[in-house]
Write a structure and sequence with these properties.
Layout lengths: L4 H7 L8 E5 L10 H9 L4 E5 L8 H5 L6 H18 L3 E4 L7 H18 L4 E6 L4 H9 L3 E3 L8 H6 L2 E5 L2 H9 L4 E4 L4 H11 L4 H11 L15 E5 L3 E5 L9 H9 L7 E4 L2 E4 L4 E4 L5 E4 L2 E4 L3 E21 L2 H5 L1 H20 L6 E8 L19 E9 L2 H16 L21 E18 L7 E6 L1
Helix pairs in contact: 2-4, 4-5, 8-9, 9-10, 13-14
Length: about 475
């Protein structure tokens, strides 16, 4: 809930005066870190170890499919080191957005790894698992009550969309994690979670002001990404007090600078100075970044603005179809000079062939041409209209309602394009160079985000279900 005046007074330092050291193992649990960095940081007095395990940056596939991202063995290795050192030191471990998307299957996958480690090493601790997956019926009721508000550019939302979706998750704030810690959990594995909440939950619980805890959480969220030059994924530590925090990498080969730390405050934000979280927003307009050594930076001056209504972000993914692709190279300078017209006329011919051969109308599938070397990365947002060089890479992307349908459409497209003529050509000429045989690749199910809304709550812990057990 929104903090009371009494709570804000305590967090401002009027009652509590203390420091707390937070340790981020890495920017994503599956990417790893240097073992010696984490060991050093824990031995130097870290009060807890946190780690983000997920993101929407990888697209909707993981949420929709329920599959985790990252190798199981690599994730197990990273958890083994984190748990071993934390249990030795008697400090908590907090993992957020388990399994990458933070849904129920992702949470169960991560929890099973933790339990497996406990059995193998004969570890004993209290484990909290926080489920953030939202049942469709609960979200439908919230939609009918008018409790869901779209975030731009959210897709249109109706009851049909909610019924068809594969999975929904709510992005928790600090409160469910705090509740688990209050219940005595030493290891907290959370479903979909705010990156900042992983690192702000315990400090706020211990009396660190919210503006300090939330800003430190923002800096810690990606581990060593805050350093001046990150050559590899690694740990990051921050010491928090009543006025601010000091960030310094445990790895002596890495260093933070005021510019590198300030840059991470701006990272992935719609507004470079205003970071919205559940329960309020961090205002960094007046933040100061001061080098206190050649490796450490002191941060102060930010402000936390409590919101009138408590909301959590809702993410949902729905099945969009099944994908088959072809990768091809085009080197003919005559085609490259008129590439747009070549692809436009190819599309016209292909659509007619698909209708004649497979009896499929144009709305039964999607056909996309992605040109790498010109605008393959930014698409219609690309500011440079032309391209330099003597070749481009072309991805032919077909999405249909079944894998077999996409696979049937694809050869009609690539074979037609292979010999599709331009005015300067006479006779049969091959236009594409294929790196693989067969050219076509069946990619599998395709998902799309269908919900990007916030849900207004009376109780910040309401959508989340926590299970606590002694291992």
């Amino acid at each position: 809930m929104i903090p009371s005046a009494r709570t804000r007074q305590m967090e401002s330092g009027a009652i509590l005066k203390q420091k707390l050291k937070a340790l981020a193992a890495t920017g994503n649990l599956s990417t790893g870190f240097q073992e010696e960095s984490l060991v050093r940081a824990v031995q130097e007095g870290a009060n807890f170890v946190g780690c983000d395990a997920g993101t929407t940056d990888s697209g909707p596939y993981y949420l929709g499919s329920g599959n985790p991202r990252g190798p199981r063995e690599g994730t197990k290795r990273n958890l083994r080191i984190m748990l071993r050192e934390a249990l030795r030191a008697g400090i908590p471990v907090i993992v957020g957005s388990a399994g990458h998307a933070g849904g129920r299957p992702h949470l169960e996958w991560t929890v099973e790894i933790v339990k497996e480690l406990a059995r193998e090493n004969q570890w004993r601790f209290k484990l909290a698992a926080i489920d953030s997956e939202i049942n469709k019926e609960d979200l439908l009721h919230a939609f009918r009550r008018g409790e869901l508000t779209p975030l731009r550019p959210a897709p249109d939302l109706n009851e049909g969309t909610l019924q068809r979706a594969e999975r929904f998750v709510a992005m928790m704030g600090i409160e469910p994690i705090q509740a688990a810690l209050k219940a005595g959990a030493q290891v907290v594995i959370a479903g979909r979670c705010s990156d900042v909440a992983i690192y702000a939950a315990l400090p706020v619980l211990k009396g660190i002001p919210r503006h300090v805890a939330f800003h430190a959480g923002k800096i810690l969220e990606c581990g060593a990404a805050t350093v001046a030059q990150r050559l590899y994924a690694d740990c990051m530590a921050a010491e928090l007090d009543q006025e601010g925090f000091t960030v310094e990498p445990p790895n002596p080969a890495l260093r933070c600078t005021p510019q590198s730390v300030a840059a991470h405050t701006l990272y992935e934000n719609a507004d470079p100075y205003y970071l919205v979280e559940s329960g309020g927003a961090l205002d960094t307009t007046a933040a100061q970044y001061e080098a206190i050594s050649d490796r450490a930076v002191r941060v102060s001056g930010s402000r936390f603005v409590a919101s009138e209504k408590y909301t959590v972000r809702i993410e949902g993914a729905a099945l969009a179809g099944y994908r088959s692709i072809v990768v091809a190279g085009i080197r003919d300078p005559l085609i490259l000079r008129q590439l747009d017209e070549f692809l436009r006329s190819l599309r016209t011919v292909v659509e007619r062939k698909i209708e004649d051969s497979l009896k499929l109308p144009g709305d039964a599938y999607t056909l996309s041409f992605r040109v790498y070397g010109r605008n393959g990365s930014l698409g219609h947002l690309e500011p440079v209209s032309g391209f330099e060089g003597h070749e481009v890479g072309l991805i032919i992307d077909v999405v249909a309602s079944s894998q077999s349908m996409a696979a049937d459409i694809l050869p009609l497209v690539w074979h037609t394009g292979l010999h599709h003529p331009i005015p300067e050509q006479e006779g049969l000429i091959s236009n594409f160079a294929f790196p693989f045989s067969p050219p076509g690749i069946d990619v599998g199910p395709v998902y799309q985000f269908c919900v990007n809304h916030v849900w207004q709550l009376n109780n910040p812990c309401e959508p989340f279900r926590t299970t606590i057990e002694d291992l």
